[in-house]
Design goal:
The protein is mostly beta strands and about 775 residues long. It contains 12 helices and 51 strands. Helix 7 (about 540-555) packs parallel to helix 9.
Length: about 775
Amino acid sequence: MRRKHLIFSFILFLSSTVVMAGPEVIPLGGNEKIPPLKSRTYSFTLKDAETRQARFYADVRFDWKTLGGYTSGMSVTANGRPVNGARLLNKPLKFKMRNGTIGNWSRPDSSGYILMYAGDFSDSIRTNRQYIYGLVEDNQHPFRFVFDLSGLLTHGQRNEVKINATHSVGLVVENVKLELDDKAMPRINDPAKNVTPAPTGPLPDYQQKTSQSVKPQISASPGGALEIRANGYQFDLNTKLSLPGGKWLNVPAASEAPQETPHYTFTRKIEWKDSRISVKDTFTNKEKHVAGVRLENRLSFPGEAKRILRGGIVSDLKQTSDSAHPSIFAELPGMSVGMVAEDDILRVQHRMMKEKNAVLLSDDSLGLPPEGSHTLEWSIYFTPGGYYDFVNLVRREQGTNFTWNGKLAFPRSKSIVDWNVKNVTPAFLRQYLAEYPVNMVMTHTATSPNISRANSTIEKPWLGHGTAEPLFTWWAERTRALVKVMGEVDPKVRVYAYLHKNLCSEPGWPSKYRDSVALGTNGEVLTAGEMGLFVPTPNNSYGKALLEVCRFLVEDLNANLYIDEICLGVGSRAPYPEWDGCTVQINPFTHEVVRKLSIPNLLVKPWLEQVMALLKKNNKKLLANGSPATRTLQNHHAEHFIEHGAGESGLIGAHLCTPLAWDGYVVGKPGYDHFRESLDSGALAITWSGPWNDHTFPFTPVEIRPGYLIGKERIITKLSGRFGWNDSCKAVVYVYDGQGVRVAAPDFKILEENGKTVFEIRMPGDHVAVIVKQ
C-alpha cells in the first residue's frame, strides 16, 4: 500500500451482451491509504459502447485521528483529464456547517476537492452537535464522492481514474467502485445543465425602494422590562448585570435612572433615532482596581421565529461572534427584528445567542479601568421586510453607502521579473492598461529575484514581510517606478503597496521585537513558520518600526497602502504586556476578574489610526483584505474586500461594510463565474477579469440584494426583472451570456410609467446585465 508510485491496475472486461436489471457495479478497491502528495490509480477496460452512465464512487477523508476541520486535499482525473465539480452527482457543491460557514467542495470548473479531517467514516461529523464543522444538511455526505465519467472514458482500451493527495496530510479511501447505469443521475452541479431560460411572463419588480423601518411604541412594563409594540407584536427587553458571588441583577430595562452595584454604576440612555431604538449603556467603576462586568440583553417575542441569523448566517452553535457583522436577526411572520452592536468594544467582545422566541446580545468580558468608565452602544431595528431589508436599513443608518472605486488588478505578466524597473516604461504601462483597463493596481508581496523559496532562510528570506520590506530594494525600486510612471500615463490609476501588519521576515526578528510578539490564549508566543507574528501598537517597538515602513511606502515610494488581513492576522484574546483597557477574563461562577486580557483588534486600533492619519496627510488611500472589526476603522470608508477562499459566508459577513469580492488570480471564464456567483451573495467583484467588469465602477450602493445590486450610477443584475431608480432617466445596458460574451441584441425594454423610467430585462439564468445610468 505504501509503494512509491502506488499504481494498481484492475483490468475489467465488461461484456455488452449482458443485460442488467439495475446498475452494474464493479468493485475497484477497499480500504487503503494514499500518502501525502502521492496518487492511487484505478484501472479498468470497457468493452461496450457508452450507452450507460459511468459513475465513479469513492469515500475519502484525511488520514487523521479525530474530527479536525477541513481543507483542500484531493484532485481527480480520468485518463489524464480533470474530473471537475460539474461532474459531482451525489451532493451539491455548496454545503453548510454547524457554525454557519458556507463552503464549497469544489468549483464547477475545478478538479480539486475539499476533504474532512476525521478518524473514521462514521456519521459523527453530522451527529456530534458540539463539533462546529459538522454538516447540517441531509443531502450532504461528508466523505462520499460520486462522479459522472461520461465522455472521459474510452472503450476497448484501458481507462485510468487517479485520486491525487494534494495536501501534506495523506488520505484514507474506501468503497471505490464503478457503476454503469442505463438510468443517469442528473448533473446537479453542472451550470450548463441547469440554465433557466429567459422568462416570458410577468417580471418581478426590483425597482429601487427605500428599506422601511417600523417605529415602535415603547413603555415600561410592571415587571421592569422595556415593552416594545410593533406591527401587532409585543417585544420585551430584559437586561441583567453581574454581581459578586456569581449573582445577577435584573435591572429595569426601561429606566434611565442610575443602577448601583457594589463595584460599578450602570446608566442607560434610550432614544428613537431615525430608524432604530438606540441604546447607550454606561458602566462606571467605583473601585481603584479593575472591575469586570458580565451583561445580557434578552429581546423576547411571542411565538417562534421563522429563522434566526447571526452575522447574516444560520448557525447551530450556542453562541457566535462576528465583529464585522455584529448582528442577530429574527424573521417573524409579517415583520423582522434585529439587534446590532455599534461601538468598538461591543463589536469585538459581544456574544450572540438565540432561543426559539428570543434573541440575546451579551458581553462576558467587559473590563473597567480603575475609577474609569465605558459606554456600550447598540441598536434594535424593526422592519416589515426580510434580512436584506434589515441589512440595507443598517447600512443606511451607519453611513456605509459610500462610493466603491474598483476595478483592481495585480501587475500581471508571464513572469514577475517582467516588471523590473527598466521595463516599467510608459509604453509598457499603456499596453498593460489596454489589456487590463483598471483603476487600481496592488503590488505583490515584497520579493527578490535572487532568492528562491527553496533557498529561503530566517536570515535570508525570500519574502519581505513587515519591517523587512525596505530591505527588498528590487521590489521597492520597482514599486517606486510603477507609481511614478503610472502617474505620468494615467494619474487616475492608484498604485497600492503591499503590507501585512502582523507578519515579519526582517532578519533578526526573533530577538528584535520581543515586546510586540503575538500571543496565544495562554500567553504562548505565536509564529508563522520562519516568520514572526507581531501586534503593532503606538507604544511597542514593532509598532514604531512598522509605522516608519508605512512612511517609507507612502512618502518615499509615493504609493497608496494595501494592508493584507487587516483584522484577521492575529485574533486570540491573550495576556499582552499592554492592556487594551476594556477586556478581562471573568470567572463565570464567582464573577471575579481572573486576569486582564487584550483583544488584538482593540489593541492595534490606535496604531491603525496613526496609519490613517499618515494616509490622509499625504492624500493617499487604504485598501484592505478583510472587513473592519471596529466602527472606528469602518468610519474611514476605505474599501475592504473578501478573498474568494472565504466563500459565501465571507461575503455575507461583509454586508454591513463593503461586500467586495476578490479573486486576483483568475481572468476569462473563471473570473466571469466569480463575478456572477458573487452577486448571489449581494457582493460585487472588485477585481477585473474581463470586459464584463468594464462598466461596474464607480459604484455607490443604494441597495444590496441577492442576485442584484442597485447603485446611484448603475444596476448590476443576474436576475431578469423590472429595474429602475424611481426617477426619469436614460440608461444603456450591457448584457453578457454564460461565457462572458457580450450579447449583441439583448431583450431590454425602456418604459415610462407614471413619470418614471422602468427598465425591463429578460435573459437566461447564466447571463448578467449592467444597466448604466446616463
